[in-house]
Structure formats: structure tokens, C-alpha cells
Amino acid sequence: MTSATRGRQIGLGGWSGRTIVALVLAIFVLFFAIPIVWLLLATTKSARGLIVRHPFAPGGLGDLRANWHQLFAFQDGAVTTWVANSALYAVGALAITLVAGIPAGYALALTRFRFRRLLLIVTLIVMLIPNTALVLPIFLELNAVGLIGSPLSVILPMSFFPFGVYLAYIYFATSIPRDLLAAARIDGCSELQVFTRVALPLAAPIVALVAFFSFVQSWNNFFLPFVMLPASDGYPIQVGLTSLLASTPAFNPSSAGMQSVQLPTLALATVISVLPVLIVFLFAQRFLVAGMTAGGTKE
């Protein structure tokens, strides 16, 4: 076999491999992109236009405004309350997660105390337990102290984020120079000062990563608020979507009436429910990339 023939075979094999990869990626892009494009276009149509027009034909601004007004007039502005509740729960849980989780990861990685290894193992085990499996015992605990129905019944459980503790542990164990921390201690810094003045500023990427994951998990949480909050005025937007769904005649024919919601309005509510996560992702993208690559190299 000549070198030219071998080169053509290698080139053909490489071309075929790239073609297959590109084809698979294109299929996945279409699989995920088509529903998103349809959802965005559905918000610009009327209920009749959504049925009779082409699925990917754009609507008009007039229909979009009508859907917007119908959505925010639902139950005297309940959607605004739901979005505000989601922000309260997500930001409250995020604050507690950062205050508790980042120092916990630092302590597990860089300090020595009794039962440290046991605590780390328990953290890893809890990470593997589905969140829904913990809802019932958490409900019983919060009911015993009278917190059911209050914002704390959602914020406190959502702030329990062992995955964030583990991310912080990995970062502090692999990316913080021990000599730098030792020098700070020699200069007279207490352990708290070493953490707040030396380790924490260096850990900005992992703090951003933990904050993003915590915010997304809290914002998208459905089952916990659904169980803990009996009244509609305490719902987050994810739970509120079920009320909108129940008021949509296409899914619940008995809901036809003054407070009924049309399919384009429901599509608009869905877009609004995911918009804050998208905005946070776009603004935090640079920090997320730095956080995902943090801890990839050892000291």
C-alpha cells in the first residue's frame, strides 16, 4: 500500500467520522431546538392562530400583547405574586447555601477535626438521595415547629445543598496553595481571617458556580413548594403553572369561563418561568466556565 493510498484512506476515515459526528449533533440540536422555537412563536399567536396557522409561522405583536395582558390579569395578578415568590425563595436559599456551604467545603478540605471523614462520606451519600425522598420527613419536621405555609418552609430545605459543599471541597482541596494559607497563619491571621481574607477571594469562580446551581435548583423546584405551601398566594411560578394548566380548556374542558387561559398564554407563562434562569446564565457565563475548570489541576 502506497503512502498516497494510505493518506486517502485516513482522510476518508476522518471525513466519515466528522460527518457522523456532525449528523448526530444536528439531530440533537433539532430535537431540542424545534420545541423551543415552537414555544417562542406560540406566544405571538392567538388561540385560533395557534391551531389553524403553520406551527412555525410567526404571529404578531398584537396577539403577544393580548396574551401578556391575559396572563397578568389571571386571578388578579397572581402571576406577578408567583414570580416574586420564586425570587424570594431562590435568593433566600442561595444566601444560606453560600453562607453555610462554602465554609463547610473549606473546613472539610483544609482543616482537621474529629469525624471529618465521616462527615464527608455522609455528604456524598446525601448527594445520591433524590430530593423528593426527603420531602416527607422534612414536612413532618417543619410541621412540628409550625413552619408549614411560611416562606421558611421552602427556603430552609432548599438551602440544604450538599452538592455545593462537595464542589467547594474539591476546589479548596486541589486549587488553594497550602503555603499561602500557612504564610497567612504565620502573619497572625486566625483561621476565620485565613478563610475570609485569603481563601475566599481565590474561590470566586467556585462560589459563582455553587450560586448558579443553587439558584437553578431552587427556582425550578416544584414538589417541595407544592407540598409545603397550601395557599396559592405563596406559590412560586413553577407551582403556579399548574393552576394555569388547570384553567386551560385544552387540558381541562371544565375550566371554560371568565378565568380560562388559552394555550398561547400558557406558553408565555412557560417562557417567563424559565427567563430568569436564562438571564442569570448569560450574565454569569464567564464565571461558570472558570468555576467548571477550577480544581482541574493540583497544587
Automatic annotation (TrEMBL):
Domain spans labelled ABC transmembrane type-1: 83-284
Keywords assigned by UniProt, alphabetized: Cell membrane, Membrane, Transmembrane, Transmembrane helix, Transport
SUPFAM superfamilies to which the protein is assigned, alphabetical: MetI-like
Bilayer topology annotation: Multi-pass membrane protein
Localisation per UniProt entry: Cell membrane
Entry-linked CDD domains: TM_PBP2
InterPro entries (alphabetical): MetI-like, MetI-like_sf
Protein name, per record: Carbohydrate ABC transporter permease
Organism whose genome encodes this protein: Paractinoplanes rhizophilus
Lineage, opening ranks: Bacteria, Bacillati, Actinomycetota, Actinomycetes, Micromonosporales
